[in-house]
Amino acid sequence: MADSTPRHLADPPRRFGLSPLQQLFLAALLALAAVTALIALLTSDADGGRQAAGPATTRARAATTTGAATTTGPATTATTAPAARPIRPTPGNLLADGDFERDLAGWAPLAGAQARRVEGGVSGRWAAAVRPGPAGGPAAMVRWAATTTREGVTYEAAVWVRAPGGAGQVVLALRELAGGREISADQAGYTVTGDGWQQLAVEHLTRAPGSSLALEVTGRDLAGDGRLLVDAVDLQAETE
After folding, report:
1. Domain boundaries, position 209
2. Percent of the chain at pLDDT above 90?
3. CATH code where residue 132 lies
4. Are residues 22 and 111 in the same domain?
5. 230, 159 Cβ separation under 8 angstroms
6. Contact call for residues 238 and 204 (beta carbons, < 8 A)
7. For residues 155 and 137, what is the distance between their CA atoms, to the nearest angstrom?
């Protein structure tokens, strides 16, 4: 028998698959998920790059600290690694033999002291080692006629010293000589330790034209065997 139910009251036909509107909505969701995944991936790469750069920055800071530690020390001790300074006289140095790399020519011990070259200089390989003589006294040496002067010019002498035995006193002096006598002089005294090399300096304003300067280095009351190491002697005429 034929179905007498009206067509508009019959069950709607069953459909399989998605409607165009549902397909569009699903495509939008997939696109959003893809964009989200891409952003997450890019963010992860950026963070990884910053983390990789961290150790390099740390190494750079460590290198800077090491350099500062090997090229810098306390102001009173000026302890610096030998490699941080040149092994040749600085420009303008009036002394050609201030590093003792050849010999001790021009230098002489004072007050019975003994002087010789030893290895382990602060500038180059060699240094001068001065120790008190058998009768005692200071560990002293002098560079006679270090330079011929001009009147009214300030000369500055700087030396590096080391007291291997321990603390003591070192006096650096510039003496102006003319006609076999001392016209004037300036000296500076320093307390040194056995921690390493220290740089000392003294200045002198000349009084007479054509005079000469003698440079003295004297160690007093030095601990241990009383030995004093001297190196990298620099004598300069200051210019305006």
Report:
1. 82-237
2. 54
3. 2.60.120.260
4. no
5. yes
6. no
7. 28
Q: Which two tokens stand for residue 215?
A: 């440079």
On whether the CB atoms of residues 71 and 84 are closer than 8 A, the answer is yes
User: Is residue 11 a part of any domain in this protein?
Assistant: no
Q: How many domains does the chain have?
A: 2
Q: Are residues 96 and 140 in the same domain?
A: yes
For residue 49, the model assigns a pLDDT of: 41
Residue 168 makes CB contacts below 8 A (sequence gap 6+) with 191, 192, 219, 220, 221, 222, 223, 226, 228
Burial readout 117-153 (b: 16 or more C-beta within 10 A, e: otherwise)? eeeebbbbebbbbbbbeeeeebbbbbbeebbebeeee
Q: What is the C-alpha to C-alpha distance for residues 231 and 229, in angstroms, rounded to an integer?
A: 7
Q: In what order do the strands lie in the sheet with 212-220?
A: 107-110, 139-148, 212-220, 168-178, 181-192
Q: Return mean pLDDT, the chain.
A: 77
Residue type, 7: R
For strands 198-205 and 154-162, give the pairing. Answer: antiparallel
Cα torsion 206, 207, 213, 219 to 10°: value is -80
* pLDDT score of 233: 97
Rounded Cα distance, 124 and 96, in Å: 14
Helix ranges (DSSP H) in 18-72: 20-71
Please tell me what DSSP assigns to residue 138.
-
Question: Which regions of 96-237 does DSSP assign to beta strands (E)?
Answer: 107-110, 114-119, 126-131, 139-148, 154-162, 168-178, 181-192, 198-205, 212-220, 228-237
